[in-house]
Prior knowledge:
The complex is a heterodimer of chains A (73) and B (219). Chain A is mainly alpha-helical and 73 residues long. Chain A contains five helices and no strands. In chain A, 45% of the residues are buried. Chain B folds into two domains: 13-119, Orthogonal Bundle (Rna Polymerase Sigma Factor, Chain: A), CATH 1.10.1740; 130-211, Arc Repressor Mutant, subunit A (Orthogonal Bundle), CATH 1.10.10.10.
Amino acid sequence: MNGWSALERFLRTDPRDVGCAEAMEMLHIYAELTAAAGPAERRYPGVAAHLRACGPCGEDFEGLLAALRGDGG
Amino acid sequence: MAPADSGVEEPTAAAAGLDAESAEWVRALAGTGPRREAALARLHEMLVRIARGEVRRRGPRLRITGPELDDLAYQAAADALLAITGKLGQFRGESRFTTWAYKFVIFEVSAKIGRHFWRHPAVPLDAEDWDRLPDRFGFDPAREAEWRDLLAALHRAVDEKLTARQRAVFVAIVLNNIPLDTLVIELATNRNAIYKTLFDARRKLRAVLVANGYMGHEG
């Protein structure tokens, strides 16, 4: 990815983005659905949009997913 | 390790609809005596395992190593256990109990890493070195002629269009690469508030760059 597209991607905002508070509230539901190969993104598009844009929440999601997968989830 | 019985919220009526394993966790943790103590010990053991896995997963990107990482994992597990028992009544069975519980320990790991960087910042939180901006986004120094005007326009927009709060958050996170969770501590706020401030700043900056022809309208 070059600088232009990285900057463009950083500045682009998604109006569906629910923000950190709601994403954190839903994270266990979203992660469990994702781990089960369920339609997490389709069911919760606002959470998906947030996790794509927010580094810390995205990192928490990856961590929870790794915990579930390591746990046979 | 085990918190006292007091302070645990009553499980909700929805507990009746839980899967068997989750229902057993809720019953044991909401109870008293040896059964509760055993459940707390088992949960603590699981939380330590998840916390250690999480700090190992994040470890390569952190300037924290060895025993300090392990301490962080144990502290995260202990604090998560307190949070889980204190909020047991808020578990509504929308996931398995263990998934809900793991979420708390992942959040505790995040918060403790943020606190670590707050205590050991690589650069002052309010430093302002705009020469770092090209590198932050991976602009090729050899092709500076192609992006110099764009970044100058971005700098102007940051100075002229953002509020003081938006500017401070942009500088800390984008220029100084301060982790968002560290900024949360520094500014005594929460992740959602910082994210919203940065979200609004990003939207404003993009609108300026689009209006001045540096970026397309699409999206």
